[in-house]
Amino acid sequence: TPILWPPHAKKLVMLLEWWSGTECVIYTDPRAYPKYGKENAIVVLNHKFEIDFLCGWSLAERFGVLGGSKVLAKKELAYVPIIGWMWYFTEMVFCTRKWEQDRKTVCESLLRLRDYPEKYFFLIHCEGTRFTEKKHQISMQVAQAKGLPSLKHHLLPRTKGFAVTVRSLRNVVSAVYDCTLNFRNNENPTLLGVLNGKKYHADLYVRRIPLEEVPEEEDKCAAWLHKLYQEKDAFQEEYSRTGTFPETPVVPPRRPWTLVNWLFWASLLLYPFFRFVVNMVSSGSSLTLASFVLVFFVASMGVRWMIGVTEIDKGSAYGNMDSKQKHSD
């Protein structure tokens, strides 16, 4: 995996692992652990925390496949300056979350992954949107209407995208990694907290499920995914009672490449920037200084806006639709 690719993911993972020093303990079967990073995998993450996507990237980085990993993301993120644009040009899979519109584009994007030359994780949040109490209440009304068991810690999964992913990547992807993330001591991690250097303590339960165990027919695949989320919910409930997940805890070592990547770009870009600032200040022009302050303020607001995309209380209304829509997949 090239050290400098993809720079946006490397920098964010650097902030998590090296700047904030966030710890992540993985609970998994020791027999499955040696296969991580040595095979293509579909990674199913719960979607409850503002930095859960970042923990997924950290997982990929720890096993050396961040450079080739892809995500299934909402289309709005493609328009976020810098990060979203990079995602677009590095073949991330975007969806509008309206299946009639997404079917063709998602299928075409997934089929291109069949020929991807590197090992990768394909990360997917099957719940479609982050967990909130309001969305959970509506989701469980739909579960009751459909005769599905209630979930306490998750929303109902959206099954069609997962079924198409499995069908499109079968015989190329070896396994589904079912990942259930939680944080100790009721921590509520945020991207802003990571940027401020706050240290969090993550626990991640990873189950390796061979892809041949996942049914190919859409209805059976949907039933399989609902059962998976019932199991994930039981794991989360056990964690809330005991503070731990099943299986053996292990901490994969941090790799230095995210830090090397950051130091490279910092040395390349910051020196000319500081020279520019010094020259601007020494010029003594009030108009020039005012223009610089304005540009700096706009840039700061832009960064804050991009962080806002990840914040739960400013998340999309997806999942808050009237329950009469029956949470259609």
TrEMBL record:
Residues 41-163 form the Phospholipid/glycerol acyltransferase domain. Pathway: Lipid metabolism; Phospholipid metabolism; CDP-diacylglycerol biosynthesis; CDP-diacylglycerol from sn-glycerol 3-phosphate: step 2/3. The keyword Nucleus does not apply. This is 1-acyl-sn-glycerol-3-phosphate acyltransferase delta. GO terms for cellular component: endoplasmic reticulum membrane; mitochondrial outer membrane. It comes from Muntiacus reevesi (Reeves' muntjac). It is a multi-pass membrane protein. Residues 1-24 form the signal peptide. The chain crosses the membrane at residues 262-281, 287-307. InterPro entries: Acyltransf_C (IPR032098), Plipid/glycerol_acylTrfase (IPR002123). It is found in: Endoplasmic reticulum membrane. GO terms for molecular function: 1-acylglycerol-3-phosphate O-acyltransferase activity. Its EC number is 2.3.1.51.
